[in-house]
Design brief:
Chain A is built from 17 helices and 20 strands. By secondary structure, chain A is of the alpha/beta class. Chain B is α+β, with helices and mostly antiparallel strands. Classes of the chains: A alpha/beta, B alpha+beta. At the A-B interface, helix 9, strand 15, helix 12, helix 15 and helix 16 of A face helix 13 of B.
């Protein structure tokens, strides 16, 4: 059976964060129930179409999925279990594993905002078949959390984390964010140190990117640091100015993170992701390895059998007719598939293998990318390890530049 | 029309003193156009001219004026370009006239080009009528300007019309002065044909349209004409005169008249400005004086940004050349830029205009190399070569000596800025000649300057260091021996031929250093460190480094939204395409013009 990952999007938040440009809405609780209904209808409609696929992971993301009630979450998960081949996340599926000899547990994650989930909620999630919690902490410094427009404090996180553990979750991720306006190496070390004391199985350390259309982008201006250096800063509405870390500081923060986490038993398996061995996020890895994935819910992206599409980002249209919401459907050409294979696969620390390339495309990788690989190797951006090709640390630092090299000029192709 | 009732004249002025506006008013007043037909500036035909506010090509218009004495007069108004680059065209336009209206701004007074134009008009024996314009400006000082005209130029100006062309004040006084003071043309309609070409344009239906002033004789449809300098002969298909913005055919043009003819001529090069047109069957005994072949003064390389558009660039240049006899080009290749053309221009403004027209009218994306003048290189084997491309400089061991073109420059400046301007001229290797106070607080500085010091950013520097109060006029003086060296630029240790330029040995260090600094700003950071070096021969004289890019990570995955990630990567790659790849280094197109922006004051 072919594998398929599921992504479920919950487009609601208590309050929009100042850096967020995802499709999500604040203050519309009256929509929750009808959205959940629509979502279940969409799930229902997929039953026949994906009956030949076995689900390899499920991820409920947002927005803030935990803004929904535990009952609503359970309604969604029940619908998923009824309509897809999801194995072994609940006790009652153990028999199926023994029969079919597929992987013992299917990873089933939900994103939670610290503070708004109770211990009872976690127990309900567990009962609903969810086995992995992902906390959006971002920072252990409350002032930084306020800068970001987060609604929780560090204390809220501590309480939620302990609640999740008590409810029996043994696979927990914590998202933390680098390059927060006003962040320094010292404040970062505090965040990292605090998170470390709770021993989450997985840590995602992303860098803030100032996206168009966000508050941060509106408030971005050139300012001066205390030492008089001109740099980008965020000019907050309360009149305070938070400078963005310099390129050098950010790099130092990144190196420090890697070194400290690796010393503490975490392994970096992807540019921004660290995990205790055995706990790498299989849903995340699926994206980089170009597994099939089906996105359900508002504005969710999908790729199945090399066709990509997105659901509409119009909430009322979705609620009205969730079965006809596909947009921007695009069959990937072989050229595009090869490009993706490279620029996605190389984000993993293990890189890609020549064998996988040949098996996937029936062409030798050197015939397609020989000169690019040579060039990047000469610049020490990539390294070769037997069959594998992967980014060096230098290559990771400037990965955008490196990955862009794998886009094939259309002229070249024809 | 009786020869007695023809007035051939032009309007001369310093740039921005209101020449074109006055021309508009004259056309309006003489009633050949209704107000509605008036575009803002009728004579400035091309879009580009309108935007830049300067007149590039000389043109002419014929209007009818009913004077106060009750008689009708034909006015042939010949427009002249206002920029020193086009001095020769100005002189030919003047040669087609019998008089000139001198427009002086009532606030600015006389400026360098005012003087240069007046002297040129007087050289052509034109009757010069001064007119004081912009008298309604709050800062207008007509009395002072009148005195200035009398004292400095020596023209009687006390009864000069005080006008505002913009606001239509006292324009009739100008028209009457033209009738009264400008002499009617002379010449015998039955004598052998002798006509001066003062402009020509290419039309894809009619071929070249030749603008002429008939001095002697008559030109008619069917006349076999001969261009005396180029030797080209052709049968006249059409003759006519200039309506406002259009051509109006007529039977013939006789001595004293201004108009045009066409004769299925394919190339403007056959009808050079300044040449004399005569009747091939009954030629005049000698050509009119003053013909000069136009020389390109400034050369630069022009390359398509995308090599695939080489053919398009060639076609575009061919078309522009049909209309612009002073544009020269020949193919060249550059290691850095591929296939392109070395193009010759009258000056930097001419270069910029052509560049803009290529980009705007022909939709071409261009890389232009630093402009260069023509150097003369005496080789040890006794041959002298003209060098238009620094890359072609022979090995120093083969060079006996080099010469560079010099100009005589006149800079008019208020006394407050004499110091800074003299300093500028010294920096630019100027040889001080004299200073002449034309008024208590205004002087003309005369310098001999190397042309290559003027073509870079001299105009800008002049304006910025004098807060706009200095004006420049210059004339080519000839060649002088000079201590010149070729400065090469190495990027990532590779010589970039398109960035080489010739510079005087004494300023080589300074220029090399500034060039490296400038390129450091222009070249984006790469994955590796890029040294930028300036060298004379094998000796490095300046160095800067573009530091390696340390961080560029796209950390977020956007929940499986791979399309978005792809778009970001594509944008990144697209940005690189707009650059030139030299070795491993991507150089933005505008970096090739960096040498023009080295004056940092």
């Amino acid at each position: 059976m072919e594998k398929l990952e599921l992504y479920i999007h919950i487009p609601f938040c208590v309050q929009k964060c100042r850096y967020c440009d995802f499709v999500s809405f604040a203050n519309c609780e009256e929509q929750f129930a009808s959205y959940v209904d629509a979502l279940c209808r969409e799930i229902e409609s997929c039953r026949e179409k994906y009956s030949d696929y076995v689900i390899s992971s499920v991820y409920i993301g947002g927005g803030t999925p935990s803004i929904l009630s535990a009952d609503q979450i359970q309604k969604i998960t029940d619908s998923l279990f009824r309509n897809f081949n999801i194995v072994n996340t609940k006790e009652r599926h153990k028999g199926l594993f023994l029969q079919k000899k597929i992987r013992p547990t299917t990873e089933f994650s939900i994103e939670c905002n610290p503070g708004i989930v109770s211990k009872a909620d976690f127990s309900a999630y567990k009962k609903a078949g969810i086995n992995r919690i992902s906390f959006g902490l971002q920072s252990a410094i409350d002032e930084e959390l306020r800068t970001l427009g987060r609604i929780h404090t560090y204390e809220d996180f501590v309480r939620s984390f302990e609640d999740a553990r008590e409810a029996g979750f043994d696979n927990i991720n914590v998202d933390i964010m680098q390059a927060i306006p006003g962040q320094t190496m010292i404040s970062w070390q505090m965040t990292l140190g605090q998170v470390g004391t709770w021993h989450p199985e997985h840590i995602s350390a992303y860098s803030l990117i100032i996206e168009d259309g966000t508050d941060f982008q509106k408030w971005l201006k050139k300012g001066k640091t205390i030492s008089g250096e001109e740099r980008d800063g965020i000019f907050l509405p309360d009149g305070s100015v938070k400078m963005l870390p310099s390129e050098e500081e950010e790099r130092d923060i990144y190196y420090f993170t890697r070194d400290m986490l690796e010393k503490s038993g975490y392994k970096r398996y992807e540019i921004s992701n660290f995990a205790v061995p055995g706990f790498a996020c299989s849903h995340n890895i699926g994206y980089w390895k170009r597994e099939n994935y089906l996105g359900l819910g508002l504005h969710a992206s999908s790729m199945v059998a090399n066709v990509r599409w997105k659901n509409t980002d119009d909430l009322s249209a979705y609620i009205q007719d969730p079965e006809n919401v596909h947009e921007e459907e695009q069959k990937l050409t072989v050229k595009e598939q090869m490009e993706e294979f490279m620029f996605l696969g190389l984000r993993l620390t293990q890189g890609i293998t020549r064998t996988d390339f040949v098996n996937t495309f029936h062409r030798d990788i050197d015939l397609v990318y020989g000169p690019v690989l040579d060039d990047l190797y000469d610049q020490s951006m990539i390294e070769f390890a037997e069959d594998a090709i992967r980014l060096t640390q230098k290559g990771i630092d400037v990965s955008n530049q490196v990955l862009a090299e794998f886009l094939i000029d259309s002229k070249q192709e024809s | 029309m009786n020869q007695e009732n023809i007035r051939n004249f032009c309007i001369i002025a310093h740039i921005d003193h209101g020449k074109s506006t006055l021309a508009d008013r004259i056309i309006e007043k003489t009633g050949t156009l209704t107000s509605r037909e008036m575009q803002a500036q009728v004579l400035d035909n091309m879009d580009l001219e309108r935007e830049r506010g300067i007149t590039i090509k000389a043109q002419a218009v014929r209007v009818i004026y009913k004077a106060q004495n009750g008689e009708e007069y034909v006015f042939n108004l010949i427009d002249t370009p206002g920029h020193v680059d086009f001095n020769y065209e100005v002189s030919r336009s003047l040669a087609a006239c019998d008089g000139a209206v001198l427009v002086v701004d009532a606030a600015q007074g006389i400026e360098a080009q005012t003087l240069a134009n007046v002297y040129m008009a007087i050289d052509h024996d034109l009757e010069v009528i001064p007119v004081i314009n912009k008298i309604d400006l709050p800062s207008a000082e007509p009395e002072r300007v009148i005195e200035e005209i009398e004292d400095v130029i020596g023209l009687e100006a006390h009864d000069a019309p005080l006008i505002s062309a913009k606001n239509d004040i006292n324009i009739e006084q100008v028209l009457e002065a033209i009738v009264e003071r400008i002499p009617a043309p002379q010449g015998d309609a039955s004598a052998p044909l002798q006509a001066l070409i003062f402009d020509s344009i290419y039309d894809s239906y009619k071929g070249v349209i030749v603008f002429i002033r008939v001095r002697e004789g008559t030109i008619k449809v069917g006349t076999t004409v001969k261009m005396m300098a180029t030797g080209a002969e052709a049968n006249v298909v059409e003759v006519g005169y200039f309506g406002a913005g259009k051509f109006i055919p007529c039977d013939g043009l006789t001595a004293g008249m201004v108009g045009y003819f066409t004769a299925s001529i394919k190339n403007v090069r056959d009808t050079m400005v300044g040449d004399t047109v005569t009747d091939a069957q009954r030629p005049c005994s000698e050509p009119l004086p003053g013909y000069k072949k136009v020389q390109s003064m400034v050369y630069c390389g022009m390359y398509p940004a995308d090599g695939a558009h080489y053919e398009d660039l060639r076609d575009a240049l061919e078309k522009l050349k049909l209309n612009d006899a002073s544009l020269n080009y020949e193919p060249e290749t550059s290691v850095a830029l591929g296939f392109g053309f070395r193009c010759g221009f009258l000056g930097l403004l001419h270069l910029e205009i052509i560049e803009e027209r290529l980009e705007r009218e022909y939709n071409l994306d261009l890389v232009t190399t630093a402009p260069s003048v023509i150097y003369k290189v005496m080789k040890t084997d006794g041959t002298m070569i003209d060098l238009t491309n620094p890359t072609n400089l022979p090995d120093p061991s083969e060079i006996e000596y080099m010469e560079e073109p010099m100009v005589e420059a006149e800079i008019m400046v208020t006394s407050d800025y004499i110091g800074p301007i003299m300093e500028l001229c010294q920096e630019r290797r100027g040889v001080y000649k004299e200073i002449e106070y034309i008024e208590a607080n205004r002087a003309i500085l005369r310098y001999d300057l190397p042309l290559n010091e003027i073509i870079y950013d001299f105009f800008d520097a002049l304006k910025s260091r004098s807060r706009g109060y200095a004006s420049l006029d210059y004339e080519l003086k000839g060649y002088e021996r000079s201590k010149l060296v070729k400065l090469d630029i190495l990027i990532n240790r590779e010589e970039v031929d398109a960035l080489s330029f010739i510079v005087h040995a004494d300023s080589a260090y300074e220029r090399g250093r500034k060039m490296c600094e400038k390129l450091k700003e222009e070249i984006p950071r790469h994955l590796f460190e890029i040294p930028i070096q300036a060298a004379i021969g094998s000796k490095i004289i300046a160095r800067e480094t573009v530091k390696a890019l340390r961080k560029d990570v796209l950390a977020k995955c956007y929940g499986g939204d791979i399309t978005r990630k792809r778009k970001l990567l594509e944008k990144q790659k697209e940005g690189k395409k707009r650059m030139r790849q030299i070795g491993n280094v991507e150089i933005p197109q505008k970096a090739f013009m960096s040498v023009l922006k080295l004056d940092d004051r």
